[in-house]
Here is the input.
Amino acid sequence: MSEDEIIKLESVYKIFGPQPRGRALTLAKSGMKKNDVQAATDHVVGMTDVSFSVKRGETFVIMGLSGSGKSTAIRTVNKLHDITDGKVLVDGVDVQALTGTALQEFRREKMGMVFQHFALFPHRSVIDNTGYGLKVQGVEKSARNEASMNALRLVGLESFAHNSPRELSGGMQQRVGLARALAADPDILLMDEAFSALDPLIRRQMQDEMLDIQEALHKTILFITHDLNEALRIGDRVCIMKDGAVVQIGTPEEILTQPATGYVAEFVQDVDQGRVIDVKTIMVDAITTDADATLGQALDAIGERFGAFVVDKDGRPTGLVPREDAVKALASGSTDVSSVLVKDFDSTGAKATFNDVYAEAGKGRSLAVVDDDGKLIGAIHLRDIMKEMGRVERLIDGFEREVFM
Ligand SMILES: Nc1ncnc2c1ncn2[C@@H]1O[C@H](COP(=O)(O)OP(=O)(O)OP(=O)(O)O)[C@@H](O)[C@H]1O
Ligand SMILES: [Mg+2]
Here is the structure.
């Protein structure tokens, strides 16, 4: 286990049934599919040959349809499930080997868990619900309340600390669940469909809040969802599961632009690619020209591209020479670049998504891609965006519809 990995599953199998280590495991290990193993042995394959590792500080999302093994997988991490075969490591600790108080301490200190339907104690106040885990740990009241208030502040419920859970909406109650997990300040958050019961709008708010919290706290989050949009929105990496097996692991962008199978491609079809693919993926080297160059020289430099930028001595773009304008100006007798220099060109950062830059790109001119210091690092044009979207579409169409078989 390398230093930056905090959770690691190595070829984990989980078979449900009276004899999990019997023939069902042998068949699963030979590569037999979940349904066939079930037909042959009457045992259910919860996980088959599942391997992945989660890096410290990463939000790792497991996504898949109902019954694909997501909950089973997350439960192996805190040993709510024993595994049938393989290995689960958390921060170098072999989780399966833990028992009794060692296991309790490990769960308490290392991780917090949030479920889909988070049960709050109806007769305890919000702050007492939040601090419940700390109370169990024997943390004294003032320290407990301080930690709870901090956690409630993170989820925006500070002012409801002394209310009863019954006075809270479903979304707010779910936030208390998140606050409870955060109160003990664990390294790892395990979240199983934590937002799935919420209305779309509230759900989005919760996702945004979690992204904010994550930016501030850098927890390691193992998040489970059956919603690919949610997965791509919050995940640094996404693991797609089907029938107990891992189908693909990748960044949202990799999943979208390089779906590994038709199954993944089918999911990807419903996703707004522009929300995920970023400028960095397809930007090209920017062409530059001098402000005192001739139009002929500028056009030579531009070649097949859409324009060239003039940069100052620090490498920051100060003007754009669009190819079309240069061609027209040259035809009507102008010779110098300054006659067509566009000063109000648009710029973007490399991390912006296609959706972020559509409006500017739609004007038809090249955008300057700049780094944090404003230096020119590339260029992007609407045509580049369209080309990439078209490539992904064709890729998806190219997969045979092997899908829900
Ligand atoms: N305790 C159990 N006993 C027997 N089979 C189980 C048990 N828990 C899960 N399974 C089976 O393991 C498989 C994976 O279930 P799991 O709960 O991990 O799915 P999931 O991906 O979390 O689905 P959902 O989106 O519906 O929550 C299913 O086929 C399920 O029937
Ligand atoms: Mg589940």
In short: The CA atoms of residues 172 and 337 lie 59 Å apart. The chain is about 40% helix and 20% strand. The pocket of magnesium ion (ligand 2) is lined by residues 70-71, 192 (CB under 6 Å).
